[in-house]
Amino acid sequence: MDNLQSLTYFAPEWGLIATVVVVLLVDLIRNRRDDRQVGTWFVAGLIVTALLLLGNTPDHTLSLFRDAVAWDPFSHFFKEIVLLSSLFVAVVVLNSRELDGYPLGEFYMLLGIMILGMFWMVTSIDLLMAYLAIEIVSLTSFVLAGYLKRSRRSNESALKYVIYGAFSSGLMLFGFSYLFGLTGTTKFHAVAAALRNLDPSAYGAVVVASILILAGFGYKISAVPFHFWTPDVYEGAPTAVTAYLSVAPKAAGFALIIRFFHDVLAVPTGEGLAWSSIGNLPWPQLLAILSVVTMTLGNLVALRQTSVKRMLAYSSIAHAGYMLMALPVLSQDGVFAILLYLVMYLLMNLGAFFVVIVVENRIASEQFEDYRGLGWKMPYLGVLMTLFMFSLTGLPPTAGFIGKFYLFAAVIKAGSAYYWLALVGVINSVISLYYYLRVVKMMYLKGDPQETLEGAGRFYRSVLTLLALPTLLLGLYWAPVAEWVRQSLLLFKP
Amino acid sequence: MQTHILSWLIWLPVAGIVAMMFVPRERKDIIKVIAAVATGLQTWVAVILLLNYDSSLGTFQFLEKMDWIPAFHIHYSLGVDGLSLPMVLLTPLLSFLAVFVSWNIDRATKGYFALFLLLDTGMIGVFLALDFFLFYVFWEVMLLPMYFLIGMWGGPQREYAAIKFFLYTLVGSVLMLVAMLALYFTCGQTFDFITLSQTAPEQLQGVTWWGLSAIRVIWVLLFIGFAIKVPIFPLHTWLPLAHVEAPTAISVILAGILLKMGLYGMLRINYGFLPEAVWWFAGTLAVLGLINVIWGALCALAQKDLKKLVAYSSINHMGYALLGMAAVVAAGAMQGENVQAAQAGLAGAVFQMFNHGTISAMLFILVGVVYDRAHHREIEGFGGLAKPMPIYAGVTMVAFFAGLGLPGMSGFVSEFLSFVGAFPVFKVIVILSTLGILLNAAYFLRAYLKIFFGPLNEKYATIPEINGRELFTVVPLAVITIGLGVFPHLFLNLVKNTIDVVITQVVQLGNLF
């Protein structure tokens, strides 16, 4: 489809661009004493974007802008995920004291651009477009991570982020150049067609290229060994940003990984999303190993953390590992499980981070030690945090269990060749129990039941309830979400 | 006819939790009454169930089935048969009594009883579920309240005990999860217990994974999961710790019901779905039973702490049940089709599950009674208590004699049946196991002598006698123990037909060679 026609399918992106422009203008003319004005406009813009997005629901698949981006239910799902988490974070930032004294206009503007970048990340079907999208997201997140410019830790985190980001995107670009060199095109499907006819003697180059490209993708979803930035950035960045980074870019990264491996390095083998690797190249095995290493390392290091925020950073690495587990089986069920898990993960992970924000606002600390007796001091918050922790562990009846259940089911369905992967996965769940329970232990088993502290406040209570209710209810009845995900399993094919 | 009686059993405690939410946390009296009413009603419903249960059938009764997640063939499906019925009766009864045992809980009373009721729902759900997924959810739901109940209201080492319990059990349950999914995908995508018990034995025939028989792989995964719960040596180390650190009422529940879940799971799932592996594993099971018997007894003999002694005696008692379960192979062609032995063994195992539930509950309650007064449990630290506490001494004698398997008490019957059943097949093992009975008598009698006889320890000259509330929690259990000791057929008739079904399953579907 040519460029002009494509624009009509671009309504949500228009909405976002308009939001960014409006925020920029409002920031110039606003009342200097009212910091919340910009944020309100931004949230309103996001809501309009969400409406545009819902009005733009694809029932078939198209490629826009001369095969640069796809318009399909798969990307639509990820746009919804990204937008949902953005809304939560934007609303929380609006009410958080963390960014007091920093200009919020630029913050929202950058956030808007980042969302736009993620929209493109999840839709791109062109190597260059994918690269551009990743860079947009990276650049804006560097700035957001270092937004507390008077805080040394925030500055340090931004710098680390930039260095690792530059390095891994360099590797990825190098990998892309291999693919371009081998095939002479940058379009995903054209690359795939060319690879199918490739002389097997060149497969070595394809393997090297896929490893290099995995470096870039792995960085975005913070998979080991491209995860080194994660703990420091998560710890230094404003907590709201950390919460955001742990969910939205990770989801977008998974969208890109799935699409890239599905479109470029695989051939369809039947109904739905069944596929197999081109020329039996060993990248599924590579992904399986990556998954095992990621979850195991994430979990083991999380055991030793003294800061809850840092623990959650490592736990988010581990969760990336769980999700990666369902990719090597190359089945529709695998992709289904990843998407379903992302929904559950969004709820529980944002919930956990928001609790950290509330606690930070109250006692200015994120250390385990300072969570002592918190369950007694702030009863409602304690119950919700317990729920989020159990959900992250994956115990029924919570959303996290359902997510993991489908991941394991997808892996086990693939046959006995991957049973070992499922076993590693479940053992990792047990390990993770220990550190999630440490939070619960601190909150309830330590401290004195008599103490009380000022509660979370009505605003945070409602936001957290909004996250906690589905975390519990989806553990009991998840058919609607499963249906939503099932309808999103359609990727653009030429 | 759909009566939903089983749903009532499961959801009554949850209704209690909901009711509690509307009570301010200071009104501890109302909270306790709600807990008592919820579990009391549950017990009443269980009695109605018993009266309406048709013991001439061995199959599932009072079936309920509803779609839950059709896309994954998950159902809310309940039923009760002779295997689960004893536990379905015992669970509400012990929960009801345990509410009175924990009457003096003062710290965060509302949280305690809410968690307690949640635990109750999880436990009875496990015994009633006829859908593997539902079974698994209930199985896991118990962990959370148990963690808090031990961790917040327990003894000095409660945190360590709680986390150890949680981690051990979770290892078992995630292995079970893998096995459950493997069964689901190899046996026609179903979680339904009834369907699985019909299809799994055949569909798993000849399936191999990495050169190993699929049946055995799944068996081992499930067995580890259940063995942790029983617990079977060497996976038992969480038990003495958890039992000792838990508050009295929770020890009662742990010993009385949670341990039985492991055995119930094996009988229902391992025996039901993988009968072929029973033949392969029965010898190991008998040896493990023997180890449990001897190891548990020896450890109990070495204890100075009365509660630890009782905890280790649980390990010992579970060993007899394992022996009885192993006896099912007596019905096989190679063992001369000795069906009576198989029947005796399995009946002994199921009866032992129930008896240990009542006897160990009594023992733990009685330990709690003296601990509440003396604030220690050192066996050596008492002496001559029979003088200031004659009633207590009498009740404890009943409990100890039941524990050591004195004829006339229910424990004797079930241990005897287990031995009789296992003897034709595992002669040496059974002979060695009888040694356990001897050791049992040794440690129980030694403890009894040290505590109640000898010179009166002056410190406890004025120790108050067991009170009415405490007696109320023990007497029903003592009556059941003696009653079933004299009239064991009352119990055995209930389970007989289901046991025949299990034996048929194991012999016909498992012995395909």
Uncertain regions spanning at least 5 consecutive residues of chain A:
none
Mean of residue pLDDT values of chain B: 87
Summarize the largest interface: chains and residue counts.
A-B, 30 and 36 residues
Largest sheet of chain A: 2 strands, antiparallel
What would the keywords be for this entry?
heterodimer, A: 494 residues, mainly alpha, two-stranded antiparallel ribbon, globular, B: 513 residues, two-stranded antiparallel sheet, 72% helix
What does this structure look like?
- The complex is a heterodimer of chains A (494) and B (513).
- Chain A is mainly alpha-helical.
- Chain A has 20 helices and 4 strands.
- Chain A has a two-stranded antiparallel sheet with strand order 1-2.
- In chain A, strand 1 and strand 2 form a beta hairpin.
- Chain A is globular, with a radius of gyration of 22 Å.
- The model of chain A has no long low-confidence stretch (mean pLDDT 87).
- Chain B is mostly helical and 513 residues long.
- The longest helix of chain B has 36 residues.
- The radius of gyration of chain B is 22 Å and the shape is globular.
- Chains A and B meet through helix 17, helix 18 and helix 20 of A and helix 5, helix 6 and helix 7 of B.
Give a summary of the structure in a few sentences.
With 494 residues, chain A is mostly helical. Chain A contains 20 helices and four strands. Chain B has helices at 5-21, 28-52, 85-101, 109-128, 132-141, 143-153, 158-186, 193-203, 214-229, 238-245, 248-273, 275-301, 306-326, 339-374, 390-403, 410-422, 427-452, 468-486, 489-509; strands at 61-69, 74-80, 208-209, 212-213.
